[in-house]
């Protein structure tokens, strides 16, 4: 294996390679020894492969052996990180899910104090059948993650979290680079067949196209009668050069992370700024928040209490109406204060109408209708009275309005005293009901999925 020692101003990282089996204690002992060695050599962060905790004999055994983050295995690694004063990237931890017989394949990051600072549940599951060579169905015992974790601020740089099969989906690494990642990490257990064909090519491609360091710790060797991994844990620089690499046996490889070199490469070839946002977009799906982030939201000078909000994403929110035209009349707004529709960014627009669609579907079910009026009064002459872009959603019934009379009602419903303003208690009670319908359970109780 190739190794390097850190020079001034640069940070040393290590990839750890092992041949895990179903014995957790034995696997931990091997990892403890290799992590200690890496720390002695100057590594500030050590990256472990997928399945570092164990690789079981069967999918049923794998799920049965899974643990919560508070379990014995993660506690041991937290104690180790604190004792050695080293950051750990623990890829592919078998995270127990109390609501499902399956588990999450979870990438966990610990800081040098032993704290869990980030988690990411693997989003792309390895369901592959290459006749006579490879047959694995990860979805039989794993639940796919639902979030892209933001890059982690670590002493060695901003680290983007992924896991094994994620390597084949460049959109994910592109999103992380867009969000500021400087190091992309792929803890893996590539099969012998797929590793020989694609491992190095894919890792170098991800490094080059994103102008990031790629750190990929891997399993190696024969785990049991049914599983064999390729090995060749690797550290690649942003130009695509392999800085350090293991062979096919347990061990470690070390290399420098030189962020100044990364910045030079990005300055000399600024590919991020050359992207054609007018032709294509790279963005995550809207992120639904479990509960309102602040006590009051500004809505064109009017304060909306969190008690009136029944659905929220990072960019948009939905709330009940002070003077509804019909039962269920709700509003969806962008969080950023904009007066006109053309002021929205493409990301805000996509998020806003994602929320409109979700809320509209819920309102149809709640009020037993199959039609909605969805309207934007885009400017004063269109009837806008609150100077903050908002979308009206009105459940509609047959003959509730003559022809287009509903639009006249919208123009006048919040003017004067022709319609009674509801009390805060009435609005809060409706928001509670709609919130339950949107989330399916009381908010504030995150599922134990470890997606960060």
UniProtKB/TrEMBL annotation:
It catalyses: P(1),P(3)-bis(5'-adenosyl) triphosphate + H2O = AMP + ADP + 2 H(+). The active site is at 390 (tele-amp-histidine intermediate). The keyword Nucleotide-binding applies. A motif (Histidine triad motif) lies at residues 388-392. The keyword Ribonucleoprotein does not apply. Transmembrane segments: none annotated. Residues 290-403 form the HIT domain. It holds the Pfam family CN_hydrolase. InterPro entries: C-N_Hydrolase, C-N_Hydrolase_sf, FHIT, Histidine_triad_CS, Histidine_triad_HIT, HIT-like, HIT-like_sf, Nit1/2_C-N_Hydrolase. Keywords: Hydrolase, Multifunctional enzyme, Nucleotide-binding. SUPFAM superfamilies: Carbon-nitrogen hydrolase, HIT-like. Its cofactor is Mn(2+). GO terms for molecular function: bis(5'-adenosyl)-triphosphatase activity; hydrolase activity, acting on carbon-nitrogen (but not peptide) bonds, in linear amides; nucleotide binding. The record marks 407 as: Important for induction of apoptosis. It is an enzyme of class 3 (hydrolase). In the N-terminal section; belongs to the UPF0012 family. Cleaves A-5'-PPP-5'A to yield AMP and ADP. This is Nitrilase and fragile histidine triad fusion protein NitFhit. It comes from Ramazzottius varieornatus. The gene is RvY_13968.
């Amino acid at each position: 294996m190739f190794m390097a020692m850190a020079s001034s101003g640069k940070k040393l990282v290590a990839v750890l390679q092992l041949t895990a089996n179903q014995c957790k204690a034995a696997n931990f002992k091997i990892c403890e020894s290799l992590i200690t060695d890496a720390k002695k050599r100057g590594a500030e962060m050590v990256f472990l492969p997928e399945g570092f905790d164990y690789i079981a004999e069967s999918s049923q055994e794998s799920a049965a052996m899974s643990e919560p983050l508070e379990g014995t295995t993660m506690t041991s690694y937290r104690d180790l990180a604190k004792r050695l004063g080293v950051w750990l990237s623990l890829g592919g931890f078998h995270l127990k899910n109390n609501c499902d017989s399956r588990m999450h394949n979870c990438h966990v990051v610990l800081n040098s104090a032993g704290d869990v600072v980030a988690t990411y549940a693997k989003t792309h599951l390895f369901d592959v059948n290459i006749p006579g060579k490879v047959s694995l169905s990860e979805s039989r015992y794993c639940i796919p993650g639902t979030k892209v974790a933001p890059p982690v601020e670590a002493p060695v740089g901003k680290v983007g979290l992924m896991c094994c099969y994620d390597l084949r989906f460049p959109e994910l690494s592109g999103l992380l680079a867009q969000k500021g990642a400087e190091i992309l990490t792929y803890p893996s257990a590539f099969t012998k067949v797929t590793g020989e064909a694609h491992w190095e090519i894919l890792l170098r491609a991800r490094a080059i196209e994103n102008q990031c360091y790629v750190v990929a710790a891997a399993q190696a060797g024969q785990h049991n009668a049914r599983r064999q991994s390729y090995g060749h844990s690797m550290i690649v620089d942003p130009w695509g050069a392999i800085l350090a690499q293991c062979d096919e046996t347990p061990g470690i490889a070390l290399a420098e992370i030189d962020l100044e070199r990364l910045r030079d490469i990005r300055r000399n070839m600024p590919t991020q700024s050359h992207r054609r946002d007018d032709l294509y977009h790279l963005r995550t799906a809207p992120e639904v928040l479990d509960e309102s982030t602040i006590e009051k939201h500004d809505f064109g000078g009017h304060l909306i209490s969190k008690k009136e909000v029944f659905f929220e994403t990072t960019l948009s929110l939905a709330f009940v109406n002070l003077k509804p035209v019909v039962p269920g009349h709700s509003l969806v707004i962008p969080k950023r204060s904009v007066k006109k529709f053309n002021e929205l960014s493409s990301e805000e627009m996509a998020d806003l109408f994602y929320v409109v669609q979700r809320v509209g579907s819920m309102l149809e079910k709640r009020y037993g209708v199959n039609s909605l009026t969805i309207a934007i009064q885009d400017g004063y002459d269109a009837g806008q009275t609150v100077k903050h872009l908002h979308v009206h959603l009105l459940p509609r019934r047959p003959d509730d309005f003559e022809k287009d009379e509903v639009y006249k009602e919208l123009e006048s419903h919040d003017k004067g005293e022709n319609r009674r303003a509801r009390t805060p208690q009435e609005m809060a009670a409706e928001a509670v009901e709609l919130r339950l319908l949107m989330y399916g359970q009381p908010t504030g109780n995150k599922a134990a999925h470890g997606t960060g």
